Automatic annotation (TrEMBL):
Keywords: Membrane, Transmembrane, Transmembrane helix. The chain crosses the membrane at residues 178-198. The gene is Cmss1. Pfam families: CMS1 (PF14617). One of its GO terms (cellular component) is 90S preribosome. Gene3D superfamilies: P-loop containing nucleotide triphosphate hydrolases (3.40.50.300). This is CMS1 protein. It comes from the Eukaryota.
Length: 208
């Protein structure tokens, strides 16, 4: 059966922490030991309530991040972001940027995708300016992190555009090329998070 056929018959359900944890376990389980798989797991306290599908993007962000005004005022670091939003494509990134106007206020948003934007341009912008929110695709975010152009030490929120479906009713995790890049990017981020969590640093995941 095609993914679209299966999804068309299933009622939309908001993402939950177990969805992401299970996906990582299934994907990496064959090539890693039990101990390594355990190291990929984060406690439920690292996750915020998922969008119950009744919120707009802006209203959802206002609910999970009520102190956003203070966070954006205090953020002064270059090459870093307070909030990172991951989605399936450049077009979807642009849609989310437009739909979060009521939430973001006067903060600066950086587009983190490959379409019509060279990675060198994004690296220069991160190095020279202060940005609060980054919205883009897993592949480009992964590349920026690997080249030390994007530092996640200041990141407090990682939002996964988990519930949105494209014209074929596919979520971002149903698209093979997105899933592959997303999983390996998350694996890199998870490895960093596990080190930082031990130092009392926290990041919150959520599903919009």
């Amino acid at each position: 059966k095609k993914i679209s056929d299966v999804l068309q018959k299933s009622a939309p359900k908001p993402g939950v922490p177990a969805d992401l944890q299970n996906l990582l376990t299934q994907h990496f389980g064959e090539n890693r030991s039990v101990i390594e798989i355990e190291e990929l797991k984060l406690s439920d306290s690292c996750f915020l309530p998922a969008n119950d599908l009744s919120h707009s993007f802006s209203s959802y962000l206002k609910e999970i991040c009520p102190k956003w005004a203070k966070l954006r005022r205090n953020h002064k670091e270059k090459k870093s972001l307070v909030m990172l939003v991951l989605c399936s494509s450049a077009l979807r990134s642009l849609e989310l940027i437009k739909s979060m106007t009521a939430f973001k206020g006067d903060c600066r948003v950086l587009k983190l995708f490959a379409k019509h934007i060279k990675i060198k341009e994004q690296m220069n912008m991160l190095e020279k300016g202060v940005f609060h929110i980054g919205i883009g695709t897993p592949g480009r975010v992964k590349a920026l992190v690997e080249q030390d152009a994007l530092c996640l030490n200041s990141t407090k929120y990682m939002i996964l555009d988990w519930n949105w479906r494209d014209q074929k009713l596919r979520r971002m995790m149903d698209i093979p090329e997105v899933l592959y890049k997303h999983l390996y990017m998350l694996h890199s981020v998870y490895s960093l998070l596990l080190l930082l969590v031990l130092r009392s640093w926290s990041v919150k995941f959520s599903f919009c």
